[in-house]
């Protein structure tokens, strides 16, 4: 059985050169842009809404991606939208939120419905972002619930793109060299 499955006739769509580890599970209405990577034990379920992942974005091991259904009070529900050049650390939980471009989501973080994380943000490991919050661009946030800690340095902003580039190289290696035996 493949770990990439259709649901109600909708099958995940992968761009060019996308790496999906064979232990990851992708179900339903999911689109993934070119050169992105999905690492071991990621679970992404596009059942009651859609999941869009941009280009050169990495979703690291054990992360969980899900969405919230549409209803009369909230006609769009909460899809999950992740931009370009995003690094999602190990075991993060992203639920019905929007993550813009060049963001680092620290490992073990939890981001809840209706949140918008603007471009060029770092979220410290183990943070929780409560529902419907917007995290403005250019800052480090951390804690439970997250607080704005300080502006990012120029080096940290540069690192956001570097981190994504590193993972593009890493996934290219995996595309050519990992073997399921
Ligand atoms: C937040 C982070 C970027 C460090 O930022 P920093 O400004 O260099 O922070 P420092 O290490 O100088 O610590 C400053 C304070 O924040 C605290 N702190 C550090 N990381 C924290 C976190 N994730 N959550 C809460 N508090 C944190 C420190 O304990 C310290 O507190 P103190 O002043 O009371 O001693 C880093 O700890 C982190 O969480 N990085 C994410 C890494 C990751 O998950 N990468 C993805 C996988 S590759």
Quick description:
This protein has 181 residues and is mainly β. The protein has one helix at 154-177, and strands at residues 4-5, 13-14, 19-20, 25-32, 37-38, 43-53, 58-59, 64-66, 80-82, 87-88, 93-95, 98-99, 103-105, 110-111, 116-117, 121-123, 128-129, 134-135, 139-142, 147-151.
Report on this structure.
This protein has 181 residues and is mostly beta strands. The protein has one domain (4-177): Hexapeptide repeat proteins (UDP N-Acetylglucosamine Acyltransferase, domain 1, 3 Solenoid). The protein is 13% helix and 36% strand. It has one helix at residues 154-177, and strands spanning 4-5, 13-14, 19-20, 25-32, 37-38, 43-53, 58-59, 64-66, 80-82, 87-88, 93-95, 98-99, 103-105, 110-111, 116-117, 121-123, 128-129, 134-135, 139-142, 147-151. Strands 1, 2, 4, 6, 8, 9, 11, 12, 14, 15, 17 and 18 form a 12-stranded parallel sheet that branches. An 8-stranded mixed sheet has the order 3-5-7-10-13-16-19-20. The chain is globular. The two termini are 15 Å apart. The structure holds coenzyme A. Residues 89-90, 106-107, 122, 124-126, 140, 142-143 line the site of coenzyme A (COA).
What is the global morphology? globular
Helix content: 10-25%
Mean model confidence by pLDDT: 97
**Ligand inventory:** coenzyme A
Number of structural domains: 1
What's the helix and strand layout?
Blueprint: E1 4-5, E2 13-14, E3 19-20, E4 25-32, E5 37-38, E6 43-53, E7 58-59, E8 64-66, E9 80-82, E10 87-88, E11 93-95, E12 98-99, E13 103-105, E14 110-111, E15 116-117, E16 121-123, E17 128-129, E18 134-135, E19 139-142, E20 147-151, H1 154-177
Parallel strand pairs: 1-4, 2-4, 3-5, 4-6, 5-7, 6-8, 6-9, 7-10, 8-11, 9-12, 10-13, 11-14, 12-15, 13-16, 14-17, 15-18, 16-19
Antiparallel strand pairs: 19-20
Coenzyme A binds next to strand 19.
